[in-house]
Amino acid sequence: MSDVATSVSGQARPSRLAYVVLGSPKIDAWRSFAKDVMAMDVRETEGGGLALRMDAKPFRFAVEPSAQEGAVTAGWEFDAAADLSAVVDKLRVAGVALVEGDMAACQARGVERLYAFADPAGNPVELCFGHRDGDAPHFPRPLGGFKTGDCGLGHMVYACIDSAPSVTFYEDILGFRLSDSADEPFAATFMHVNPRHHSLALVEAGRTGVHHVMVELYAFDDVGQAYDRAQLEEGRVAVTLGRHTNDFMTSFYAATPSGFMIEYGWGGRTIDPEHWRAEVLHDGPSLWGHERQWLQGPKRQLARDMRLRAAEAGLKAPMQVSEGFFDIAGRADAPVRPKAVE
Fold first, then answer.
1. C-alpha separations of 36 from 18, 40, 42, 266 in Å
2. CATH class entry, domain 2-137+145-312
């Protein structure tokens, strides 16, 4: 699989977003949110935290007990140990302070090797190799499963004041490749490391930290049913149901107990990294919907105007539909056929 990670330019890069780790004093709120809205398999950990499972990995989100909201760590997995070593060497040459994970740290993450550091905006980042499988998850309600596998957890989006230093860092040091970018209604840069349209994005939102994390479902109805549940809680829906212009994802965004958002989506676009050509987007981030509570004033109105112009122009995007429905049976992407409706 390392050929997938390095073949675009011969440059070593991560293969996928593997996990997200955060500290929070709101363990009970996270347990309820992950189970009732996100339909994740919630496991208690020895330290009083939570392992939120989406597939056969030990966790995709880990919530660790903390006296206050802690920084959110993104874990990026490499398929080849040599690729990890090459990127670690580049980080050292660039003067980035690295901490190598000991046996206990690796065991906690479910990996064989681990390195931790901070990106130019101060976001905690981990690079890992040997992400182990666990048992099959048990979801709290019938679910078609989360689309993970070779494309990983989903995507991570950071809010930035000035995204340029981070864009340079992720491209030149970590090997991420540009998918596309936009200037309005806010500046945004989208990057990929595998066929998922983007695994990382940087948006200039007037602050720093995690903006949102995206998870993708195999069944569109699972998104709608989660949307119904989210609307039962005041303030839980942070961005209404809508469809993106660049990755074609149909999704809504839920406010997490820790303040950032989780995008819950279906039908995301995949690309051919070997032949992909980046472009500048001019039609706004969404074809329809996606009313953004976090976007204020003239920028929010501009986003609405851009959606209305897209509709007037008849702008459409192809549907990204997988055959049948899918579930997890001991691995992240095992397909099964649905039973016929009587």
1. 23, 8, 10, 19
2. alpha beta
